[in-house]
Every structure is written in structure tokens, then in C-alpha cells.
């Protein structure tokens, strides 16, 4: 049995339960054969010979057999249940553990609903088969063999004649199985697609509502629901045809038995007790035949389920530690990041980044700017070794990251992403996620730095407020601030801010960034942003286009040369530039005082200076003040 062999690693310690379960069921089956014999004895030896004094003994024997059979059935259920549950428990744990370590590449194409159905429906099918189905299937064969043996011992001619329709029963059962199995498989797929639709709909409920796509979603679900319903109807039609056919064939058996057996009794070549025993025994054989299709179907289903579950467990992990991977102690790390001619493509797609070279000395700040899909996030993902580079190498403190233990590498990098995931737990636990021991003072300190403390204190239970699944109940900006606090608490040597302040307004961004200035000190920081104001402090800014670096340098230099950076700057600061040019024009025309002209000229040429001086209303911090909008402008889109 393939299923048993493939899964044996998961139930090896409880193999004895499998044997005990089978043994108990076989004993219960064998004990079932005692009834027809007792019946024969009652008719032939007690009633016919009028030996009624033996009735009490017969009753005791019958009672004893019944108790013993019940006990055996209980033990079969007990051991089977234990075995099935143990196996399902081990498999569930193994799958969950595997899901933790599977590469990002796997999750790029995996469907949550499908994975959920593997971990629930498929595991249930396996649990049922290993716990009960297997023993039941074996039992069908045992019953037929035991039953036929006893019938032969009673009367071999009648046995042969009666069992003539058995091959037809087997044929119908197998044919039924061959049709119901694909139907069941189709049903499981349909169910999985239903689950996926529900899961996606709940996860993306905001998007659905924002686009008023509820009717479309309802239609989409209806189509999948219809597919599931059609399948259900098909399978129930198969079932409804199956039972009458089996009943008909069984009746043929009984008619033959009564006709031929009755003749034998009349002729005196068989006793009445034997005929009655035969009648009981034939049901003993036919009964399991009815279930044969079901048991085989149960087996094939669990085989398919086993394959689906094992597919997860046998999934190769392409990003993994090699044997000699070095540990990296955060204390020893300096944070020198180097990209050396890095090229990478997702699967067979076109390269997402091409020939990237970066040298980020410890404590430096690298800014990444570029349009959607230009490869900014990919650079960050590669640094965290979410994927292995196709060409070139990434080094941290001179060591190729493929030679560093992945756990250590990721532990030394803290990132804040565009999308913030919050676990359904307290705010405190969410900030302290991934850190074992941390004081409340520390949590409050980082929350203050991330400008989250104030709104947390306004919540009903402060830091003990539970935030729902995916942080529902918090605004995008609030979630992002919690994520920033979480990253700061990690005290990383390398900090990644992937559009980390996209969901907060300009003023809060400025406040958070002034906090960043402090926490960035001594850390190598990578900032991905669409707003030039977020990148202005960077030691080097890389402008990306279609995966290639097309411009690089400091802000002050980049705004002076023609190119995408200057274009972006012009778009984002259009009003300010216009105002400066206007004032310049007026000054040139002699309609303005010398003082005003020099002041505006300084503003345009020395924006960094103005910012460093902490001028709150400076246009670099709040370009939207002059643009009259809080919306960010995305370059090159
Ligand atoms: N998981 C993925 N699987 C396949 N292709 C991907 C994946 N992630 C990104 N890409 C592709 O790689 C390219 C670079 O994407 P990337 O996410 O790095 O861009 P980005 O500059 O960060 O964009 P954005 O500003 O929109 O976040 C795009 O063409 C994108 O479609």
C-alpha cells in the first residue's frame, strides 16, 4: 500500500497501533462467524432434537461472543483513532514547519485557499484512511475469505451456486469506484477553488468595496459554487444508482440460495439449520461488498490527499544554508553591504535587476528611487536572501551572504515594508514581535521614536489593546508607525525602509524621519521612497529604471544634472520652483528688494541647508504645502 509506505515516517512510533487495530477488527470479524453457527446449532440440535436444557448455555455463549465482539470493535476504534490522530498531528506539524521554511519563490505562486484545504480536508482524508479505512478495506477481504470458508464447510455445492453473482457485485463495485473517484477529485478541486474565492474575497474586501465589485465577486463565487453543486449532484446520482444495482444483485444471490438451498433441504441433503446459517452468512459476505466501492474510493482519495500533502513536505527549499554556512553575531557585524554585478530574474521572466553595483559602508544611507516595477524592492529582497542572485554576489562585511546562516543574516536586518502585517495580538506584542525579552520602557522608547506612542495611549487599553487580524481597526499610517517601532526595537545593523512612510502624511513623515536620523546613526540604511524628501539625506541615491541603475549620486548633485531625478524633483516641487522663478523674474525686473531675492535664491539652491537648520515650513519637508495637495507624486509611472 503506497499510502502506508509513504507515510510510515510519520507513524513509525505508533506502528503497533496499526497492527492492534487490524488484529482487533479481524477478531471481531471472526467472532461474527459464530452467530450463524449458533443459529444452526439452535435449529438443528436444540429445537429439532428438543434439547431445551441447552438453551441457557447457548444464551451465555451468545452473550459472551457479543461482549467480546463489542470489545474488539471498541479496541479497533480506539487504536485506529489514536493512530489516525497521531499521524494527522505529526503531518500537520510537519506541514506547518515546512511552510515556515519554504522559499519566497514557492509563495509567489502558492494559493492560500489551496494550502488551507491541504492542511484541513486532505489531512482529514488521510487520518480517516490510516485510522479506519485501511483496516476496513482489509476486513472486507477477511470477511469474504472467512465467510466463504465456513460456507464451503457447510455445503460446497450451495456455496458455488450462491456465490455465482459475487463477481458481478465486485465488478459493479469497482466500476462504481472508477467513476466516483474522478468525481471526488473534481469535487475537492471545486471545494479548494471555493475556499480560495472566499479567502481572497475576505482578504481583499477593501479593494472589492473600493471598486464596487461586489456583484462581480458574487457572480465569480456563484460560478464556482455552481461547479461544486454540479459535482455534488453527479456524485449523489452515482450513489443513488449504485445501491439499487447492488441490492438487485444481492437479491439474485438470495433467490438462488433459497431456491437451490430449499430444494436441498426438501431432498434431505441439507439441514434447515444449515440453510438458515447460509442465509446469515451470505449477508456476511454481501454486506462488505456493498462497501467495497466506498473503501476503495476512500483509499484512492487518501492516496490523492497524501500526494497533495507530501508535495508540500517534499517541496525543495531553494534558499537554504549550506553545510559550512557561517554564524553571524550581530555584535560582530559592521554592516558593510556590497552588491557586485548583481543580476536576478524571477523564474523565467525578464531580469528584474541587471548588473547592480552598490557599496554601502557601515552607517551609510543608500536611497533607491524609481518607478513602479523598476526593481527597488527586488534589491532589498535579494539582500535579505529571499532569493538567490542569478549572477554576481552580495557581500556583508566582505562575506558572500550565501555563506552566512540565513537566520543570522535576517536577524541582523530590520525592515519596514509598504504593507504592514500585524498579528492579532496586543500592540505591545506586535512591537516586540521576534524579540524574546524586552522591557516595557524599551517598547515605549521605540514607539515614541516612531511617533506611535501618542495614538497608542489614546487607545482603550494603550499598549495592551488587541489589534485585529491584519491590524484592522488601525489606519494605514498607524500600522506603519507600529512597523517602524518594531524594526527599531530589533536594533539592527542594517535597516531597510521600503516605502516605509508612504502611508503617513508629510508632517508625520518629517517627524518620523527626524527620529530616523537618530536611529540610523551607526546603521547601514536602505531607503526606498517615491518622495525625494525621504531620500535627501542619503549618502548615495540610485535611480532605477527597468532594473538598471541609470543615475547615481548625492541629492545636491543629481538635481543639477538633467535626467529622471531632476524631472522627479521638478514634478514634486513644481510650485516651489515656479515661485522661486517668479520671484527671480520680479527681482531681475527691479520690482523686488535685494533682500527678498537673495533669500529666495538661498531657498532654491540650498534646500538641505534650510532643512538642517530645522526650518519647519521649509518646502523640502512640506512640498505639498505649496502644491496644495497631500498626495505623493510617483515618478516615471
Ligand atoms: N514575486 C515576484 N514574482 C515575479 N515577478 C516579480 C515578483 N516581484 C516583482 N516582480 C517583478 O520584478 C520587477 C521588479 O519589481 P519590484 O517589486 O522590485 O519593483 P519596485 O521598484 O519595488 O516596484 P514598486 O515601487 O511598485 O514597489 C517587476 O517587473 C515585477 O513585476
Q: Describe it for me?
A:
The chain is of the alpha/beta class and 637 residues long. Among the domains are: 2-313, ABC transporter transmembrane region fold, CATH 1.20.1560.10; 573-627, no CATH class. Helix content is 63%, strand content 10%. The protein contains 25 helices and twelve strands. It has helices spanning 2-11, 15-32, 34-47, 55-101, 104-109, 112-154, 156-162, 166-203, 205-210, 214-267, 272-313, 376-383, 406-411, 427-431, 440-449, 453-457, 476-489, 506-520, 532-535, 555-558, 564-572, 574-588, 594-605, 607-612, 623-627, and strands spanning 337-345, 351-360, 365-370, 391-396, 399-400, 413-416, 425-426, 466-467, 494-498, 524-528, 540-545, 548-553. The strands form three sheets. The protein has a six-stranded mixed β-sheet, with helices on both faces. A four-stranded antiparallel β-sheet has the order 2-1-4-5, with helices on one face. Helix 2 runs parallel beside helix 6. The protein is elongated, with a radius of gyration of 38 Å. Residues 108, 346, 349, 352, 370, 372-378 line the site of adenosine-5'-triphosphate. Residues 337-571 form the ABC transporter domain. One of its GO terms (molecular function) is ATP binding.
Amino acid at each position: 500500500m503506497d499510502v502506508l509506505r509513504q507515510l510510515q515516517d510519520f507513524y513509525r512510533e505508533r506502528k503497533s497501533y496499526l497492527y492492534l487495530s487490524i488484529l482487533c477488527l479481524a477478531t471481531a470479524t471472526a467472532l461474527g462467524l459464530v452467530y450463524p453457527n449458533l443459529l444452526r446449532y439452535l435449529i438443528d440440535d436444540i429445537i429439532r432434537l428438543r434439547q431445551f436444557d441447552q438453551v441457557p448455555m447457548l444464551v451465555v455463549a451468545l452473550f459472551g461472543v457479543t461482549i467480546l465482539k463489542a470489545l474488539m470493535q471498541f479496541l479497533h476504534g480506539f487504536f485506529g483513532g489514536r493512530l489516525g490522530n497521531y499521524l494527522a498531528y505529526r503531518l500537520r506539524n510537519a506541514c506547518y514547519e515546512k511552510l515556515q521554511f519554504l522559499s519566497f519563490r514557492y509563495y509567489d505562486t502558492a494559493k492560500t485557499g489551496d494550502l488551507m484545504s491541504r492542511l484541513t480536508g486532505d489531512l482529514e482524508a488521510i487520518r480517516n484512511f490510516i485510522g479506519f479505512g485501511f483496516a476496513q478495506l482489509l476486513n472486507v477481504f477477511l470477511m469474504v475469505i472467512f465467510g466463504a470458508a465456513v460456507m464451503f464447510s457447510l455445503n460446497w455445492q450451495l456455496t458455488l451456486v450462491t456465490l455465482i453473482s459475487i463477481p458481478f457485485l465486485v465488478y459493479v463495485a469497482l466500476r462504481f469506484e472508477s467513476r466516483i473517484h474522478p468525481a471526488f477529485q473534481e469535487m475537492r478541486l471545486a471545494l479548494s477553488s471555493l475556499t480560495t474565492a472566499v479567502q481572497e474575497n475576505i482578504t481583499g474586501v477593501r479593494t472589492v468595496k473600493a471598486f464596487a465589485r461586489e456583484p462581480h465577486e458574487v457572480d465569480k463565487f456563484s460560478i464556482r459554487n455552481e461547479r461544486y453543486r454540479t459535482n455534488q449532484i453527479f456524485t449523489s446520482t452515482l450513489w443513488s444508482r449504485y445501491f439499487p444495482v447492488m441490492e438487485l444483485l444481492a437479491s439474485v444471490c438470495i433467490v438462488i440460495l433459497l431456491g437451490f438451498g430449499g430444494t436441498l433441504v426438501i431432498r434431505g441433503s441439507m439441514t434447515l439449520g444449515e440453510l438458515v446459517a447460509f442465509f446469515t452468512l451470505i449477508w456476511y459476505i454481501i454486506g462488505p461488498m456493498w462497501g467495497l466501492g466506498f473503501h476503495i474510493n476512500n483509499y484512492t482519495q487518501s492516496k490523492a490527499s497524501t500526494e497533495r500533502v507530501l508535495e508540500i513536505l517534499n517541496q525543495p527549499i531553494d534558499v537554504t544554508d549550506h553545510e559550512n554556512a557561517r554564524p553571524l553575531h550581530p555584535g560582530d557585524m559592521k554592516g558593510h553591504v556590497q552588491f557586485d554585478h548583481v543580476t536576478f530574474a524571477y523564474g523565467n521572466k525578464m531580469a528584474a535587476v541587471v548588473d547592480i553595483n552598490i557599496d554601502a559602508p557601515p552607517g551609510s544611507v543608500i536611497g533607491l528611487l524609481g518607478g513602479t516595477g523598476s526593481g527597488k524592492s527586488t534589491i532589498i529582497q535579494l539582500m535579505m536572501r529571499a532569493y538567490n542572485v542569478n549572477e554576481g554576489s552580495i557581500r556583508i562585511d566582505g562575506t558572500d551572504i550565501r555563506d552566512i546562516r540565513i537566520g543570522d543574516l535576517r536577524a541582523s536586518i530590520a525592515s519596514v515594508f509598504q504593507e504592514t502585517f500585524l498579528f492579532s495580538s496586543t500592540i505591545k506584542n506586535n512591537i516586540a514581535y521576534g524579540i524574546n525579552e524586552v522591557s516595557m520602557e524599551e517598547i515605549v522608547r521605540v514607539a515614541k521614536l516612531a511617533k506611535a506612542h501618542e495614538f497608542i495611549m489614546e487607545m482603550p487599553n494603550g499598549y495592551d489593546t488587541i489589534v485585529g487580524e491584519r491590524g484592522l481597526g488601525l489606519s494605514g499610517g498607524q500600522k506603519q508607525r507600529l512597523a517602524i517601532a518594531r524594526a527599531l526595537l530589533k536594533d539592527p545593523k542594517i535597516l531597510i525602509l521600503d516605502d516605509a512612510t508612504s502611508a503617513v502624511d508629510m508632517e508625520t513623515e518629517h517627524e518620523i524621519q527626524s527620529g530616523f536620523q537618530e536611529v540610523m546613526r551607526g546603521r547601514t540604511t536602505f531607503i526606498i521612497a517615491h518622495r525625494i524628501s525621504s531620500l535627501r539625506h542619503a549618502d548615495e541615491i540610485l535611480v532605477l529604471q527597468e532594473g538598471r541603475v541609470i543615475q547615481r549620486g548625492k541629492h545636491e548633485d543629481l538635481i543639477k544634472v538633467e535626467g529622471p531625478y531632476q524631472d522627479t524633483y521638478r514634478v514634486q516641487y513644481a510650485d516651489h520652483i515656479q515661485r522661486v522663478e517668479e520671484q527671480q523674474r520680479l527681482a531681475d525686473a527691479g520690482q523686488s528688494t535685494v533682500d527678498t531675492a537673495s533669500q529666495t535664491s538661498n531657498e532654491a539652491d540650498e534646500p538641505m541647508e534650510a532643512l538642517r537648520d530645522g526650518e519647519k515650513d521649509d518646502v523640502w519637508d512640506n512640498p505639498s504645502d505649496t502644491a496644495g495637495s497631500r498626495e505623493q507624486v510617483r515618478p516615471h509611472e
